[in-house]
Specification:
The structure is a homodimer. With about 120 residues, chain A is α+β, with helices and mostly antiparallel strands. Chain A contains four helices and six strands, in the order H-H-E-H-E-H-E-E-E-E. In chain A, a hairpin with a 3-residue loop joins strand 3 and strand 4. In chain A, helix 3 (about 50-55) packs parallel to helix 4 (about 70-90). Strand 1 of chain A pairs parallel with strand 6 (about 115) of chain B, so a sheet runs across the interface.
């Protein structure tokens, strides 16, 4: 029984002042106003409104326009719309390969210089 | 000469109080702590250190691993490293097609649901 209760021999001393680690809580608070990267499968002009809404909310959208490669007219219109959107929010828009357009919200820019390792 | 100097006939009146538009300056201040999207052309393990540095600095990295499609061993290792990196910073990592890996820093998550228009 003595063993189960244990620690009885130790004199009680009040715990020292300990600073609370608030970082856990901060992460939770941040979580609520989180930024998202969202991928959009663009089949025509119908997805533009939702992309616009996402970017205005501060999210990054990667627009997959590969399905429009045979519809240059619609593609041109979408590229124009997304450039206008990036202008409106002072964000950015850049092609990623030939299939994707990255659209960023206010405060996020796209670096035109690729990260490349030193070739030996 | 009268013409060159001009406006002499207009009575001088002190300019009215005009509120300064500080938005321009605010943009500059924001610019200093800006988040970037950076594309990395991954040819092997040598680019991982720079990707890690970028993500630790709060930037989003889109790693183009298309050059590694015939080197499954290196690709597996890089995917493992990037997942570990995302874990370390509580960011996120998701495939974008078969060529790109999106790696995000603390506070930025990748939505697994694509934005899709309603098909008619």
């Amino acid at each position: 029984m003595e063993k189960l209760i244990g620690g009885k021999s130790q004199k009680y001393s009040p715990p020292e002042y300990e600073e609370l680690d608030l970082s856990e809580y901060e992460t939770e608070i941040e979580g609520e106003a989180e930024t998202f990267v969202r991928v959009a499968e663009v089949t025509g002009l119908s997805e533009i409104a939702e992309i616009r809404r996402q970017v205005y909310e501060g999210n990054i959208v990667i627009a997959d326009v590969s399905l429009l490669r045979h519809d240059q007219l619609t593609l041109d219109r979408i590229v124009k719309d997304l450039k206008q959107l990036a202008d409106d929010v002072k964000g950015d828009v850049v092609w990623l390969g030939e299939e994707y357009l990255i659209v960023t919200p206010t405060g996020i820019k796209i670096d035109r210089n690729k990260i490349k390792g030193v070739r030996k």
